[in-house]
Amino acid sequence: MPDAVTLLGIAVVCTYSWRWMGVVIAGRIEDDSPVFEWVTCVAYAIATGLMMKIILLPGSALAESHITDRLAGLAVCVGVFYGLRKNLLAGLGAGVCAFMLFPGLRSLLF
Amino acid sequence: MDFRRTEKTWGAYFRQGVKHCVRAPGIGLFAAMSGFGALARDSGVSFLIAVSMTGGLWSTPGQVAFVELFATGVGGVALIASVTIANVRMFPLTIATMPLLRTRPGVEPVHFWMAHINSVTSFVQVVEMSHHVSEKNLRAAYFFGFTTACMSMGLLGTAFGYTMAYKMPGLIAQTLMLITPLYMLLLAAQSSQRSVLTSVVLGCALVPAGYLVSTNWGLLTGGVLAGTLAFAIDRARKKNA
User: Fold this and answer.
1) Cα dist. B147→A33, A62, B21, B119, B125 in Å?
2) Using CA atoms, how far apart are residues A74 and B183, in angstroms rounded to an integer?
3) Helix intervals (H) in chain B
4) Which of A12, A103, B174, B217 is at a distance of 20 to 30 A from A27, taking alpha carbons?
């Protein structure tokens, strides 16, 4: 595999080309065409799917944590988020606290 | 949120943009990027690469895809393709943002910089702001203030996460790494578009499944399949309605 600097350089150029194309094309095409809807769907599916992959199958030091702790964090996070009318910071804070406290709770219960 | 200023100058609106960022959006961004910093450190890239990634890619899905795939040691082509497709959102995002900010039709050099510092968070803010501010040059001033502050918070967060991750006990470092995925999932769930929510649900199921099948191409194929399915479901629903 090429080194990180080369990979980053290519990734920056590729990512910027989307933005560049956007500037050049903006105003010439409708931004509510079906193509955009499809791109939006794919973009959200990849982004959130990747995040779920990190929670379920982490490749990092997160893998050393227990899967039930991560799922408990996710469940509390989503529950509080929807419970408080889509409050992002409250959901995030609650999820993080749940993840940190759950290992202790688990050892008490089981 | 108060967007209008009595003093109608570039500086006043720039400062207002900065002020609005250094609240919930800025705090969320700092947290998400410190999580990214921790993930980046863990994947083995250098500090400079991690910070350059935030400044150069400026799109969380692509950045996270990069460090996750780099850590697993997939091929260069698979990594670049995954990062590029994960950042495809920047294309429609730029097209939707530009008409709100430009002072006259046509492309100006400054638009290319605007497109680089733009992000989903900034776009949402600009749409809200443009309901209150009609002068295009003041909108641009606000946009520059908001996005510059966002980028600063992101860079600081990355540096913080990267340097702090290994000094912290295991659980704290792991918590830091969990922040980014939770933050991004909630950010997507804030959308009111039904097609987006369907994409989120399908993506969360098919991408990890795809990853189990192929480490190299699972993210890309699972994501494209999930997004296309969600798009088709939404089309069918609209047709029947």
Assistant:
1) 27, 31, 8, 8, 10
2) 10
3) 10-21, 24-43, 47-57, 60-72, 76-86, 90-101, 109-117, 120-130, 136-165, 170-189, 194-213, 218-240
4) A12
Residue B145, domain extent: 10-190
CB A48 to CB B185 under 8 A?
yes
ipTM of the complex: 0.91
**Helix or strand or coil: residue A93?**
helix
**B138 and B238 belong to one structural domain:** no
CA of A110 vs chain B CAs: smallest distance (Å): 20
Task: State how far the Cα of A100 lies from the Cα of A106, in Å rounded to an integer.
Answer: 11
Please name the residues between 119 and 138 in chain B that touch chain A, using a CB distance below 8 Å: none
| Tokens, residue B81 | 């393709």
- For residues B235 and B210, state if they share a domain: yes
Residue pLDDT, tens place only, A23-39: 998 877 665 678 878 88
Cβ separation of B208 and A1 shorter than 8 Å? no
Judge whether B5 lies within some domain: no
Please say which residue of B151, B169, B190 terminates a domain.
Answer: B190
Same domain, A78 and A103: yes
A77-101 pLDDT, tens digit per residue, is 999 999 999 999 999 999 999 999 9
Residue that has been written with the tokens 């993840």 in this structure? A99
Considering its fold, how many domains does chain A have in total?
A: 3
Residue B213 belongs to a domain: yes
Q: Containing domain of residue A89, as a range?
A: 65-110
Given A22, A26, A41, which is nearest B231 (Cβ)? A41
What's the structural domain count of chain B? 2
